[in-house]
Amino acid sequence: MAEYLYDGTFEGFLCCVYAHYYNEKATSIAVKGDMTQIAFFDEPYEIKTDGKKAEIVYHAIENKLSTFDLRRTYRIFLAEVQGKEMVLLNYLRFGFIKGPSVSSYHGFSIVRAAELLEKKVTMESNRFRELLRFSVLENDILYAEIEPDNNILELLGPHYSDRYKNNPFIIHDIKRDRALIAAGGKWYISAFTKDNLPGYHTDEFDFRRLWKNYFEKIAIKERTNPRCQKNFMPVRYWKHLTEMQ
Predict the structure, then answer these.
(1) pLDDT interval class at 41 (50, 70, 90)
(2) Mutual orientation of helices 109-127 and 67-77 as an angle, nearest 10°?
(3) Which candidate, 34, 33, 23, 27, places its Cα nearest to that of 4?
(4) Over the Cα atoms of the chain, what is R_g?
(5) Are 145 and 175 in contact (CB under 8 A)?
(6) Neighbour tally for 161: CB within 10 Å
(7) Nearest to residue 194, comparing CAs of 135, 131, 128, 129?
C-alpha cells in the first residue's frame, strides 16, 4: 500500500493508475506540494509522468470501459475538489471489473461519487456558455475574464471557437493564469497574464453603457425575482458580468 504524489497533469494521474496496478496499491493520490491529503506519518512515493504508461491506461479505459467513460474520466479530472483522484481511481477499478456497463450502476456509491463530480464540471462549463461577457481590445481582439471553480477552459474551446470563427478572442482564467486563445476556428490553451494586454477599444465603454441600459429597460420590475436570478446567475460570477457591475 502506498501514498502517491504526481505532477497534477492528467497524464501524471494515469501513471498513478498504472502504478496502482503494476506496483503498489494506492491509498491516496495527491498533487506534489499539496500535503493536506497525505498522512503525517507516511512517506509518500512520487510518481514520474511517463507518456507510454499514461497511453496504456488511456487505451485501457477506452477499450475496457468505453469512450464515454474516458471522457467522463477527463471531465472529473478537471474538477478542483480535494480527493478527486481517489474518486476516479475507485471508479476506474470498478469499471475494469464491470466493463462498459459501469456507468449504469447509478445506485453504487463509487459510481454516484463520480457522477456528482462530473456534474459539477459539466454544469459550470454550460453556465459559462451563457454567462461570458466579451470586451473589445485596441487591436479588435475579444477578451473575457472568468474565475470558474473548476478548470473548465478546454470545455469552452469547441463552443466559442465555432461561434466566433471570424473573431480572434481570449478567454482568460485569471484564477489560474491560463487562457483559451482562438482565431479562425482554431484554439489552444496557454499560460497567460494581463501584463502585456493592450487597453480597451475606444468604443468599449460606450457599448457597455448601451448593454446595461438595454438590460435595465427590458426588465419588468413587477416580475423581478432575485432568488430565481441567483439560481441561474450565481452571485460568484457577477463580478465579470457587465450588466451586474
Answers:
(1) very low
(2) 70
(3) 27
(4) 21
(5) no
(6) 19
(7) 135
Give the Cα separation of 225 and 154 in Å (integer): 33
Say if CB 3 and CB 12 are below 8 A apart: no
Please tell me the predicted confidence (pLDDT) of residue 42: 64
- The answer to pTM > 0.70 is yes
The answer to whether the CB of 42 falls within 8 A of the CB of 30 is no
- Contact residues for 168 (Cβ-Cβ < 8 A; gap 6+): 140, 141, 142, 182, 183, 184
pLDDT, average across residues 190-204: 90
**CA angle at residue 54 from 7 to 21, to 5 degrees?**
95
At 244, the amino acid letter reads: M
Residue 69 in contact with residue 101, Cβ under 8 Å?
Answer: no
pLDDT reported for residue 242? 84
Q: What is the 3-state secondary structure (H, E, C) of 73-129?
A: HHHHHCCCCCCHHHHHHHHHHHHHHHHHHHHHCCCCHHHHHHHHHHHHHHHHHHHCC
DSSP sequence for 208-233: HHHHHHHHHHH--GGG--HHHHHHHS
